[in-house]
Amino acid sequence: MKKIFYFSALVCTAIAFTACSSSKESAYRKAYEKAKAQEQYAQQPVQQQQPEYQAPVQTQAPVTPMVQQPVQQTTTVVDNTPVRKESVNVVSGSGLKAYSVVVGSFGVRANADGLQNTLRNAGYDAQIAYNSDRNMYRVIATTHDDKSSAISTKESLKATYPDAWLLMK
Fold this sequence. Notes:
By secondary structure, the chain is of the alpha+beta class.
């Protein structure tokens, strides 16, 4: 009796699994056919993808182009550029003026020396100043007497050094 029960349970399980696999196959087949149809639709030329109805094209008299005078761009230096005031000591360089353009800050002196050499090779009079309050070496690309020239130099350095900022002595 136990053997018949186990055998019938095994037969029922086998039938259930075969019935499920055929429904999965048909679902996969439908998904595959749908993906193929979308792929073929995407490969059709653009003209065939446009809607059937198209509004009539209105023709107008030719328009003569306007001649514009060349516009001269004037760059005005905005005086609201933020400036940090820090107490720094020059470690390497000729000395700082009132406003300086800082392009890098490092906790390790060797990193600051590397950036200073890069800037000097690019033609800048780079200097290193040490901020003892923050234990940071500031790499200064240029130093200026007035704020407007420092701002213009900072803006020209923004392409290479996007985090450049102004330091006031």
